[in-house]
Design brief:
The protein is of the alpha/beta class and 457 residues long. The chain has 15 helices and 22 strands.
């Protein structure tokens, strides 16, 4: 696939890295020559210096025969104009734009071929907000992703010493919970991927990915770790776009306090939020955290634009007694460095956003795609089309499907029914098949599985 990416920042660079490894023809456009040089040194991609909204620059990038334009510069307006130019002059089939301002994203009639021709709008702040919201709803989870409109969830947890299943084989899971159907999709042990089988033994500190119907998630989590009480009190450091959106989305269900440095922003937050307590100060101020009653808080979310401030405020909050810490970290080098110690969950906004973009890049009928473990793995919801003659999956039992190495089918959604995948489960036409891919290099093979052939002619 020929893809043009506008913007070589964190999101654009991470997307280019993901897609270049999958044999796509990638061109990245940016005004920062040094950043482009750094990318081209690491990746097999083409780079062009210039403004991506200029017709001449897009033409030089190969827009005349490009399959997709992904505009993720820091300017909403540049992204919108670039999509307009790509449509008007080059008829680019798919145009994706990052639009950050809520004033734009709430205008349903603004983005269509009769106005501004953008096929898919990505709002990083909203994507990250939804991600954190799911983590708050599932105490103890490291990652939670939705499939089939939220009816099925893939959840990552760290197995704790003393958990009922720790030290036992996976086949014991069914004996422990005879009325709950679930499947362990993958296990990561000391950063090494393990394809789970019935005789696989769960060890303490394993990172376990399991899939189950939404209502069964807590029951399965209780087998792997001590089940945490539902959260009640949340303190947010940073009243920017993400902090505000998170507070607004959860203040009706939790007791929320938000700490914001800027006095004018505090006034704005106080007007916009109904139940949230707004405090002026910084998350690195010990006295301010104590006044926010941090020692009795369930979750501390550090969501400012400063990685170092987020890390330091999180460490301080943990030292003062908060139960759980979630920290927004933009620098990928910091994420693996801090997660799992005093910081419970490090959230990479680029990786969360990449998942939204991957859905539209994947070949075949892919409904949803998520980047997992900071890009090392991927979860996909694909629709099975065709029949037993034209499809490699339809009409076959799961044990008979030639799945790529390191790939597992976790569940099937058939109409309103959720079927956890077992070896004798047969895939039918129009099933939504949920897969876990532990090796990103196998993604292309998975896509081919769900592309209908022409053997029936």
């Amino acid at each position: 696939m020929k893809i043009i990416i506008l913007g070589a920042g964190q999101v654009g660079g991470t997307l280019a890295e993901n897609l270049a490894s999958e044999q796509n023809d990638i061109t990245v456009i940016d005004t920062d020559m040094a950043r482009l040089a750094e990318l081209s040194d690491r990746l097999d991609i083409r780079t062009i210096v210039g403004r991506g909204s200029y017709p001449s620059v897009l033409r030089d990038a190969g827009a005349e025969d490009a399959d997709m334009l992904v505009a993720v510069t820091n300017s909403d307006e540049v992204n919108m104009v670039a999509c307009q130019v790509a449509y008007s002059m080059f008829r680019t089939p798919t145009k994706i734009a990052r639009i950050r301002a809520a004033s734009y994203t709430h205008r349903d009639k603004l983005f269509n071929n009769d106005a501004i021709p953008i096929d898919v709008i990505i709002s990083p702040e909203q994507v990250v907000t939804d991600y954190i919201n799911r983590l708050i709803e599932h105490p103890g989870a490291l990652q939670v992703v939705n499939f089939a409109g939220g009816r099925v969830q893939l959840v990552a947890v760290r197995a704790f010493h003393g958990g009922p299943l720790v030290g036992n084989e996976l086949r014991q899971l069914r004996k422990h919970m005879p009325n709950v159907d679930t499947r362990v999709a993958a296990i990561f042990r000391r950063d090494r991927a393990i394809l789970p089988e019935g005789n696989t033994v769960i060890e303490a500190d394993d990172e376990v990915f399991f899939i189950a119907a939404r209502n069964d998630i807590r029951a399965v989590m209780s087998e792997l770790r001590r089940l945490e009480h539902n959260y009640k009190r949340v303190v947010i450091a940073g009243g920017g776009n993400i902090g505000y959106r998170l507070a607004k989305s959860i203040e009706s269900r939790y007791r929320v306090k938000i700490i914001e440095r800027d006095e004018a922003r505090c006034g704005w937050l106080s007007e916009k939020l109904q139940r949230t307590v707004v405090l002026q100060g910084t998350g690195t101020d010990r006295d301010r955290l104590l006044k926010a009653n941090i020692e009795n808080t369930d979750v501390f979310c550090a969501l400012t634009n400063d990685d170092e401030a987020n890390i330091m405020s999180s460490l301080l909050a943990k030292r003062l007694g908060v139960r759980k810490v979630m920290t927004l970290i933009s620098n990928p080098a910091y994420v693996d460095l801090v997660q799992g110690h005093d910081i419970d969950i490090a959230i990479s906004p680029q990786q969360v956003t990449i998942g939204s973009l991957l859905t539209h890049v994947r070949r075949g009928d892919i409904v949803t795609a998520y980047s997992l473990r900071r890009g090392a793995a991927e979860a996909i919801e694909a629709i099975a089309h065709g029949d037993s003659r034209s499809s490699k999956v339809v009409g076959k039992r799961i044990e008979d499907i030639d799945l790529p190495e390191g790939c597992t089918i976790g569940a099937i959604v058939r109409g309103e029914k959720v079927l956890i995948a077992h070896d004798n489960t047969v895939v039918e036409q129009d099933d939504h098949v949920i897969l876990f891919v532990m090796d990103k290099r196998r993604i292309r093979d998975v896509e081919k599985l769900f592309q209908v052939g022409f053997t029936f002619f």
